[in-house]
Amino acid sequence: MAGKPRFIPGIFNYCDRWCERCAFTARCRTFAMEQEANRREGGPPRDIAAFWKRFEASLKLTKQMVLDMAKERGITFDPAEMEEIGREEERRSRAAEKHPIAKAGIKYIKMVDQWFKKGEAALRDKEEEILTQVKLGVAGVKEEVVSLTDVVEILRWYQHQIYVKLMRGLDADDEDEATGEFPKDSDGSVKVALIAMDRSIAAWLRLKEFFPDKTDSILTMLVHLDRLRRAAEKEFPDARRFVRPGFDTENNESDPGTAEELPL
Asked: Which domain holds residue 204?
């Protein structure tokens, strides 16, 4: 499967995992493997236990592939060296978790949960209002239904991913890429986070139009998210210029680019 020409090498390394909205699923090896697994096992995992079982099998397959490739190239793994690498990765992860950007990402997750918990009644009332208008045949309401649904889905989809991608960037070991010969993996990961923040900011601005009475609370979200975005751009100044396989090389126009800066 890896050698099939239709697949774009590495496209899955810098995506947002939103396959339902991706224009490149037909050219993604990871998507093809997941579809094959679903076909073979009668569909996606039915519960969390089935999910982790499949995930464990995937990890075992990946480990075996790495071992086979190393064997072909005459590479041997020194247990002591591997143990030291593990300790270094753990130290790097602990340092990344303490970084102000990571802490701001965690705070954003909590803020979104709190906002939706407090705004649950307002969302429900808005939904009932729109459904009533649909029954009455009010023009343009169906588009509004889709728009509100999209806004909520976007905010929820990227809520955790922003932190995850920022952490991957902070935790990346870019020493081998320091010469500039290869793009930094950290920049690629952070670019995904920046795009997620762009889209989230645009979604919050749209949500404000639906709920003008919640302008203050939404502006609080926007301020935090915009400051986080600026901090990430300062920490990773080359992230925006990172060229992601497929997304930035196949004339794809699905990415909106940088959202409008907020006057903060």
From this structure: 100-241
